[in-house]
Write the structure tokens for this entry.
Amino acid sequence: MNKIILASASPRRREILEKAGVNFTVIPASGEEKISTSHPEQAVQQLSSGKARSVARSLDDSIHDVLVIGADTVVSYAGRILGKPRDEEDAVNTLESLQGNTHQVYTGVTVMERKDGAFREHTFYEVTDVTFYPVSHEEILEYVKTKEPVDKAGSYAIQGLFGIYVKEIRGDYNNVVGLPVSRLFYEMKKLGIKLRG
């Protein structure tokens, strides 16, 4: 049985994996998140790979049969990556642009598998379309005042207070929360890797 490590401090990713019945340890990746591309599908794979590699490099050589899972999520609208808001004004502006429209949520996942002393890397991404109902300026201000958007890509949490404005989701809900766990299990199954049991 592989030892599984989640290279993320996100309580949302932790909760998704726990609900899926996976036994794992959390070792958050350190270092600054940097992207060198404006393409969201490339950016999330770059970021997830960076997280997984960072934690994999920090592991003691004596730890064998280990899986390190790194993940990162960005929101994209009108061809532009929307990261975490710089401040409240930025969060308001972002949500003003998203309300009444459809945007994409991309999550990149990287699994570093150590077998026989060497790591193999498996990386993929998932995308989900999210459509919001029209939301008034006052409603957006009220939401931003809750501080919930502070550390969220796209300035909102779908599982939080802004979830009431979601009109439609096309794709994996868990992907929007931060980890496309069904796709993760599918990809690992193709590689003969069991994440639980």
